Amino acid sequence: MSLRFGPAGGAVRPRAASLALRALLSLRLALSPLALSPLALSPLALSPLALSPLALAPLAPALLAPALLAPALLAPRSASATSLTDGEEERAHARVERVLAATPLIDGHNDLPWEIRERYHGRFAEVDLAQDLSHVPPPAGAPPDSPPLMTDIPRLRAGHVGGQFWSVWVPVEHTGPEAVELTLQQIDWVKRLCARYPQDFELAYTAADVRRIHRAGRIASLIGIEGGHQIDGSLAVLRQMYDLGARYMTLTHVRTTSWADSATDRPLHHGLTPFGIEVVHEMNRLGMLVDLSHVSPEVMRAALEASAAPVIFSHSSARALVDHPRDVPDDVLKRVATNGGIVMVNFFPAYVSAARHRWEADRAAEKARYDDPPYGGLYIGQPERAQAALAAWDEAHPKPVTTLAQVADHIEHVREIAGIDHVGLGSDFDGIPDAPRGLEGVDRFPALLTELARRGWPDRDLAKLAGENILRVMAEAERVAVGLRAAHGPSEALAPAPESTGAH
């Protein structure tokens, strides 16, 4: 059980929880067997009431030692740090509103462009983003379990979003020139979005653009390429993507390329190849942010070593809390701090909840047990039986609930290890099948910041998380690029092999 101690209104540290719990258990000889029963150590028994001096007095005087009097509150890790009165809650909300009026909230990753392509053929004639789409069912032909869209203009406004990196992702099944063409189509969609709704969106290319657009009351729209396969092994293509407006590129998506290993594929290179390092250098020269979400830890470390500018993780969480390969290990978090970069915390439940991660793995195994063509599965070739068996498993094993507070835990962990200057928000909205309770759409960003305000975060730290950190990173990458362009011309390095030779 992961527990968290902390004084009322103060910051909460998992390490303090561990030490205090050890102190409690070290007095086991002074306690009765009943006191050490599972019931006595349940979350109910370890509640603030149960840990009050009055409740503990009958157990053992030693428990009232100063070492245990300091932690006045014991709660499950994913609960708020304090219980606030209505007035305090209103003040926390008002603080967040004030912060977001002055600071653009910038989300590092939103997959709406591809979702609109899949559902509505990329056509604005088929969907009106000016209306609240949270209760609009998916169109005919969409997968039956498709959730409502998580993004639209009314909810972006309600969420005080001041800047959005739109992912122009292309699935890894598309390679070579086809991947390049599809990327161009996705970039075109973002530009058409801004032209369709000029009162709400404006393209941004620099940190200064974001601030200017936010002051004008519009949402700064930035472009991020989500996968190195989308440049087809060509630095010339990379440069043209930059000229078209792309301001970051994720080095890989879910599969390894001919020059970099993905976190979710078998490693071929154990880091970056020489061409992969050249890609990082050319991105630095252009002023394009190097995005390390999706890459293997070895690539993370190699890119941090190679990059002359701050790097980003556009949508990744903390691996110390959930051992998922898409999350960032603590040693890398420390290197991000040294590099001056940022980790923008992802909201996908399997990345922020260990229980959900385990459930996803168990369900995938169960699905394969029933039907894994062409040779495996109890009900291979019998899709109806396989579907019924999986439905029965789902009913017996409900999906674990993931909460907004668990996302806040990841944010606090990144802050603890890397520092407050190196954490941001990278929702992955409309690229995930569902979201944590309390973070169902883009309108819910203020609720996340309010949770952190409850935990004692000052306004200056909320502003850094919301947008100041990524703006600093962008401005520094722009500054580095000025020097590198003055010293070096465009790289003429060639990829050693076509992108299609990557692992699949």
| Rg (C-alpha, Å) | 24 Å
Number of strands: 11
Number of helical elements: 18
Q: Low-confidence runs (pLDDT<50, min 5 residues)?
A: 1-81, 499-504
- Derived from helix and strand composition plus strand pairing, the structural class reads alpha/beta
Termini separation: 38 Å
Helix content: 40-55%
Give the integer mean of the pLDDT values: 86
- Please describe the biggest sheet, giving its number of strands, its sense, and whether it closes into a barrel: 6 strands, parallel
Principal-axes geometry comes out as globular
Strand content: 5-15%
Order of helices and strands: EHHHEHEHHEHEHEHEHEHEHEHHHHEHH
What is the fold's blueprint, element by element?
Layout: E1 3-5, H1 14-26, H2 53-56, H3 66-69, E2 74-76, H4 86-102, E3 105-110, H5 112-120, H6 153-158, E4 161-167, H7 176-196, E5 201-203, H8 207-215, E6 219-226, H9 235-243, E7 246-250, H10 274-286, E8 289-291, H11 297-306, E9 312-313, H12 330-339, E10 342-345, H13 349-352, H14 354-370, H15 383-396, H16 404-418, E11 423-425, H17 445-454, H18 459-487
Helix pairs in contact: 4-17, 4-18, 9-10, 11-12, 14-15, 16-17
